[in-house]
Amino acid sequence: MIAELAAELKREAERANERRLLVLAGDRDRGFDAAYETVEAVGVDDDAVTIVSTREGFRFPERRPRAAGELLGRTREVVVFDCHDRFVPNALGQVTGAVDGGGLLVLLTPDLDDWPRIRDGFDETLAVPPYGLSDVTGRFRTRVVRTLRRHPGVAIVGLDDRAGESDDPRPTVERDGLTYPVAWTPRSSSSRPARAAFPEAAYAACLTDDQSRALRSLERLSSPGSAVVVEADRGRGKSSAGGLAAGSLALAGQDVLVTAPAFENAAELFARASELLAERDALVSSDDRTVLTTVDGGCVRFRSPADAAALPDDPDVVVVDEAAALPVGLLEGLLAAPSVAFCTTIHGYEGAGRGFSVRFRERLDASEHAVRDVRLAEPIRYARNDPVEGWAFRALLLDARPVVDEAVAGAMPETAEYRALGGDELLADEHLLSEAFGLLVAAHYRTEPNDLARLLDAPNLSARALAVDGHVVAVALLAREGNLPAETRRGMYEGERVRGNMVPDVLTSQLRDEDAAESTGLRTVRIATHHAVRDRGFGSRLLDRIHEEFAGEVDYFAVGYGATPRLLRFWRRANYRTVHLSTTRNDASGEHSVIMLRPETDAGAALLSRHAATFRDRERDALSDAHRDVDADVVRGALRACPAPAEVDLTDHEWRVVVGASYGPGMYDVAPGAFRDLALAALIREDGTRVADGIDDRTERLFVRKVLQGRPWEHVADELGYVSTRSCMRALGDGVRPLVDRYGTDVADAERTRFRD
After folding, report:
1. Which residue ranges make up each domain of the chain?
2. What pTM value is reported for the model?
3. Matching CATH topology for 200-376 and 405-626?
4. Of the listed ranges 57-61, 170-174, 402-406, the one predicted with least confidence
């Protein structure tokens, strides 16, 4: 029975150049036996089959136990995904994307009626302390089962005898998954456009007219001042087009810098570029797979986003793959390149094109680059309207998006309804779930299918929203943290990782506070506002209501995020205060992460007080060391939100030096430590006011760059726009004068009077 059904599914998939999904539901051992029977029935070579499972000992040479991610950039005729021991939503998306047109995706699952009640290894990751595995719900699996039973192209075979009437029950076909489609008409091969500049071989490698059009548009990168945006759903060949363009530019002697969230995301791009260079006998051999060099000096090289942001070695062209997965600030920095291409997935588990198009496009359009857009719609590896792609989009909400602009364009915060988004309600209301999750996807570059499961099932997470006429216009994902027993806190202090407790973990393990995890906190994991109503106060309104609701339940509210000046202002105005700034940049975002607290009880206030003071003292030294390269406005924002005022306690000698440098002929370099104390006093102002008149934004940046970060005079003068190093030095002296007037002792006053007279 299984063999006949599998063979028929495979024949139908081949005839339509689509894919089919076969669910083998029931006992795990019987599922593997049925999977082997399926593979034998469809008659594919062993090297075209991959089994993804936590088990070992498969006969297929290309098995990838525990590593669905290794299938990225690969294709198979049959992929078997064992869902029994560890059903990871991200992995489901990855294995689905690896099945080629005419192929089968085979899922081994428990009995579908039982599956939502079963807990596995992935559920253990959701059971964050102090919650246990029994607190995790099965709503995500309920949703997956529902889509499997409703979507076309999905066959379901039950392997268990639920009535218990047989020791060797025969499989039962719940759905055969056959759609009886019309035969697929092969696409015509693309041709090289007239007056095209890239080589004939590059266009010959294009598999669709869409890809050829994209490559033609990417020729613009040869001219400085050009930007090209290539958008597509997964499987349309955007990365391949980017690779063919990169290889063609390298053949012309240009230096092409490629970046993506990780090199694996750009592997397809590099593969196509390498093939083109090799075909033209232009590739210089290398042991480094991240660098392709041509005999004529051209180059295609990969750098992580954080490194690429500095445009190392002044590339001629930058190509960004999976651009939607990178933060807007980093993308904006790449516009300093002579020419740049942004290849982005519209719907996918690495990022979301909607957030890219809404948040970044206005900055791109305002740049000096001439922008060209190209959209790839035709799938390459399977036909349009492939049912398995449609199922994956639905099951994982890869196409989740906020409500259309027109539905909420006139909304105001005062009329919005504050509501809890319970898991049962989200499961029952597809539109509500899609709007809420779509906002999270659009607003954050790392929202992924795993987050959908967390939203529905994780016991420590909850969601709150503002709605207008039933539509979600703002949403926040919240995590309860802390309230951990002493034994767990001791383990954290000794270096043990405790899942789902980000703020207590950092404060305990990194900042050495063993009592930090005793208090109860509520952390904002994500917060998003519909782009049509941004800057109207919806985010602040939502936070206000969250604070009102949970004020009696937690000791503090918290947030951790990649620090930007705008976000620091937003959270400071919401009365969150800085306690930590990470020493390293996030590889993907290129930003330093900041942690901020808002106390609600005496315990929360005590936690903030001791960590704010530690942060203040730590930054005095860190800004000339680990934080020497942090953006000046990020430093200003982080310090301004620190509630621990800096002490100004200078010796008589130090005051004479400071007054001499500000009012007389003295030199800053004689006592830089004294100036550092004064600079901190000027910048740490949690109420947002200036410490004294005469200190403007540029002066504060001067305090950061020269006094606290210790940068060379000439670099500071150039960055801040002073006409000369001497004028920059004079500006520092002038900026210190109000601090002398504010904090100076009798000795300082006498010295100042001396110079004035």
Report:
1. 2-176, 200-376, 405-626, 652-756
2. 0.86
3. no
4. 57-61
